[in-house]
Every structure is written in structure tokens, then in C-alpha cells.
Amino acid sequence: MAKTERFDLVIVGAGPGGYVAAVRAAQLGLKVACIEKEKRLGGVCLNVGCIPSKALLDSSEYYHLAKEHFAGHGIQTGKVKLDLPSMMARKDKVVEDLTANVRKLLEGNKVEIFHGTAQLMEPHRVSVAAGKKDSRDIEADAVLLATGSKPVSVPGLDFDGERIIDSSDALALGEVPKHLGVVGGGYIGLELGSVWLRLGAKVTVIEMLPKIASLLDGQVARRLDNLLRRQGMEIRTQTKVSEARVSGKTVEVTLATGDKTESVSYDRLLVAVGRRPLTEGLGLEALGVDVDPKTGCIRVDDAYQTSVPGIYAIGDLIDGPMLAHKASAEGIAAVEKLAGRHGEVNYDTIPSIVYTWPEVASVGLTEEQVKERDIPYCTGSYPFSGTGRARCMGETDGFVKLVVHSETDQILGAHIIGPRASDMIAECVLAMEFGASSEDIARTVHGHPTFSEALMEAAMGARECSIYAS
């Protein structure tokens, strides 16, 4: 007989959406349980996504700097050698430490943790199976689904974990591939391609669209393409993989570009064409939870409640960009509304970041989107080559670009490609949250010498065609 326990809120999934929601709910006085099917908490982000990928991006960047740039700073190192096992061990230690911290955070807030596979039996009852014979029922006033997403598979490119791999596999390779093929020129493909390119692999990115990172501002995407090619990455746009076959230790791939086809051999083929909501086994269909058949996303209302009262969903399970910080913000907003408070996510000011080098960060509308909406606008841009700090660091590639309303001077979008872009974008996000104008940033004193001075200069440039031009 299954043991039944009662909670105010049960959260399914302990990733950045689930564990953040659990902590906030506990802070608001709710009795909370969190169910996680994996042994370690933190979800895809901490275990096989955001965190390990950034750890390898940083390590590979240090290796690249030591090999290619230290001499220019007057640092003689001799022959630089790669110790891949040590690099992977460091990555694993970073993951281990952060996931342990999540457990401490939940336990410190008296959130009860259940390890096992969750299935919704009724709107207010969840079954947790930790094995064939070990299961228990949990009852709750509300159930919040935060199970995240999984890599999209492509017909004919089935993952085998060895030669045709997904993003998780690409974070744990035991050797540097001689030639890595990357299907998909989005953020994940470009980041993981950058890791192995720096470590010595030949990398070819295969993108079916006319440009890589298609969601970026066009000017920024073109510059990123140019810089990655300069680093040695081969980028093939408007190209499709029509066939792939594993043969021994290689993957034989047929590429189609227009009417032309050719065969290419890769050591590994990374398929990174996107992610899809992870909803299998939850029992959504039996309960009548409304799911978009095309995207697999769960439909929710403004309070993140699904079509079944008492069941809520956030993060990668619902519409919108699949970003860890979006999931966290939605988790907080959802439980605040559950607790009778005001909770809100401003979807117009969610930043997105590509952790290549140079980094790319953006928030708000691109210039193309502003044109499509027929909004009167101005742009202001400034190259990092004009800033003292970038010159000192030897990182002068890239620029800051602001898109502002030409009649109100309100900032509509900010796009940065260059060093420290991931940190600089926070000022832009805050400015847009407060409805700031380009004048506000232009008149704000920025420290010297800093990379952020480029943002101030871009704001000054934007004012030249706005209502302040005279």
C-alpha cells in the first residue's frame, strides 16, 4: 500500500525553474515537496547544460589564450599541452559543488526532496516511483511541473551516444575529435563547436538557414559569423544533412547545398537543432492537460495554470525561449501568485547570451523586428576598439548597438558582441525594466577604463538621430 503524504505544493523537477520555485514557495510559508528523477539536483542546466558547458568554454579559452595570445603579453610558457582528463575533472567538480549547494539550499528551506519518477494520477495527487516496488503517493493543493526539455532528434540522425551525439555527450568526450560536424548553427552548436575548436578539432557547422544564430540582430549575427570563421570554424549555411551513416569510427554524411550534394566524413556528429519539452510519462494526456501538438509545449494562463485546475507549468515546458533564467523567473512568479501575491515576468526584457568568444548578449527588439513592426527608430553603436580597457586587454573585436524609439528615445533593444557582453547586458536589462531612454545611459557616468564605456558611447550615438538631435 503506497504511503500518502500531504503538501501545499509539489514541484516536479529540481532544475533552475523547480528549485528556485521551491525555495520561494517555502519562504512564503508553503509546505513544499520537490520531486527529481535524477540522483543529483539542478536539472539539465547544472548537470549537463549551462554549467558544464561554461566550465569547458572557460577552460578551453584559457588553453587557447596560453597557446595563441600569452606571448603578445610578454608571457613565455613554452609548449602548451592539453590535459583533457584534468579539464573534464574540473568541469565535473564545478557541477558537483553547485548541485550539492542546491541540495543544501532546499534542505535549509525545509523543502522535502523525493527522488523518483513522477506521474500525475489526479490533479492533486502525484505518484513517485523510485523502483519497481518502492513507490509513494503525494497529495498537494497544487502541482507545479518544471521538468525541462530534451534535445530534438532528427530522423536519420538517431543519437547513439558515441558517433552521433547530443549536447550532453559533447560535454563528456574522452578525446578531441579530428573533425567534429555540428548540425545546427544555434547557440548550443556554436558554443560546443567553439570548445572543441579551441582544443584542436576541425569544426564544421552545418546550418540549413541563410545565417547562424538566426534570432540575433542581423548586424551582430554577421559579425559573429565573420569572427568564428576567422578563428578557423567552417560554417556552411543553407546546407542540409540528407543522410548520415556510422561506419566504424567515422560518420559518413551526405550534405545538400541547393542542387549539389557531397559526402563528408566526421569523427563525431553533434546534432544540436533545438530542444523539446520533456513531458513523457507525466500522465498529461490522461488528465486532459492541453498541449500544443506542434511544439509539445503545455498551454498555460497568466498564472501559469494549465487547462486542469491545480496543475501549473513553467520553464521549457511552456512557450518562450528555453533559458534557465526564464524558468527561474517564472517559478518565482508562479508561486507568488499561488500564495496570493503579485508575480510577473516581463518577457520583453529577458536577456539571451551566446558564450562564444567574443560573447554575444542581447535583450529586447532587433533592428529587423523594429522595421517589421514599423516603429520609428534610431540606432547607436560603438566599437570596442575605441575603448581603452579593450585595448589594454587585447580584445577589440565587436561592438555595442542600441535600438531606440526615435520619437520617445526609449530603449527598444540592446545588442552586444564583444568581451564581457554577458555581464554588460545586465545594465541594459535594468534600463529597459525602468523604461529608460538612451539619454539616461548617455548621462550616467561609467567608470574608466571599462568595457561599459562602449555602451555609454553607443547611447550618445543613438541620441544624434532621436528627438534630442538639433
Explain this structure to me?
This protein is of the alpha/beta class and 470 residues long. It has 3 domains: 3-150 and 276-347, FAD/NAD(P)-binding domain, CATH 3.50.50.60; 164-273, 3-Layer(bba) Sandwich (FAD/NAD(P)-binding domain), CATH 3.50.50.60; 358-463, FAD/NAD-linked reductase, C-terminal dimerisation domain (Enolase-like, domain 1, 2-Layer Sandwich). It is 32% helix and 26% strand. It is built from 14 helices and 22 strands. Strands 1, 2, 3, 4, 5, 6 and 17 form a 7-stranded mixed β-sheet that branches. Strands 8-15-9-10-11 form a 5-stranded parallel β-sheet. A 5-stranded antiparallel β-sheet has the order 18-19-22-21-20, with helices on both faces. Helix 1 runs parallel beside helix 9 (324-338). The protein is globular, with a radius of gyration of 24 Å. The N and C termini lie far apart (79 Å).
Structural class: alpha/beta
Give the low-confidence spans.
Answer: none
Looking at CATH, which topology of the largest domain would you report?
Answer: FAD/NAD(P)-binding domain
Approximately how much beta-strand content do the residues carry?
Answer: 25-35%
Silhouette? globular
H/I helix tally: 14
The tally of strands reads 22
What is the CATH C level class of the largest domain, in words? Answer: Alpha Beta
Binned, the helix content reads 25-40%
Number of domains: 3
Provide mean pLDDT, rounded.
96
CATH homologous superfamily (4th level) name of the largest domain: FAD/NAD(P)-binding domain
Q: What is the CA–CA distance across the termini?
A: 79 Å
